[in-house]
Amino acid sequence: MHFIDVIIPIPLQKLFTYSITAAEADFLKVGMRVAVPFGKSKIYTGIVYGIHENAPSAYEAKDIQQILDESPVVNEYQLKLWNWISEYYMCTLGDVMRASLPRAFILESETVITKNNVKTIDESILKDDEFLVYEALNHQSSLKIHDISSILDKKNVLSVIKRLIEKEVITVEEEVYEKYKPKLVRYVKLDTHFTAEVELHKLLDDLSRAPKQRDVVMTLFSISAKTKKPVKVTDLTTESGASSSIIKSLIDKGVLKEYYIQRDRVEYSGEETEASKRLNEYQKTALTEIKASFEKHHVTLLHGVTSSGKTEVYVKLIEDVLQQGKQVLYLLPEIALTTQLVTRLQNYFGEQVAVFHSKYSTHERVEVWNNVLHNSAKARIVLGARSSIFLPFNNLGLIIVDEEHEQSFKQFDPAPRYHARDTAAVLAHMHKAKTLLGSATPSLESYFNARQNKYGFVEITKRYNDVLMPDIELVDIKDKLKKKRMKGHFSDRLIEEMQETLSEGHQIILFQNRRGFSPIVECNTCGHSPQCPNCDVSLTYHQYRNQLRCHYCGYNSAMKQNCEACGGQDLDNKGFGTEQIEEEVKLLFPEHKVARMDLDTTRGKYGYEKIITALEQQEIDILVGTQMLTKGLDFRNVKLVGIMNADNMLNFPDFRAHERSFQLMQQVSGRAGRTEERGKVLIQTYNPYHNILQQVSTNNYIDMFKEQMNDRYNFKYPPVYKQIKITLKHKDYNRVETASIWFAKSLRQVFKDNVLGPESPPVARIRNQFHKNILVKIPKQQSLAKTKEAIIKINNSFMSVKDFRSVRVILNVDNF
Ligand code: ADP
Ligand code: ZN
Question: Considering the entire predicted model, what is its pTM?
Answer without folding.
Answer: 0.79
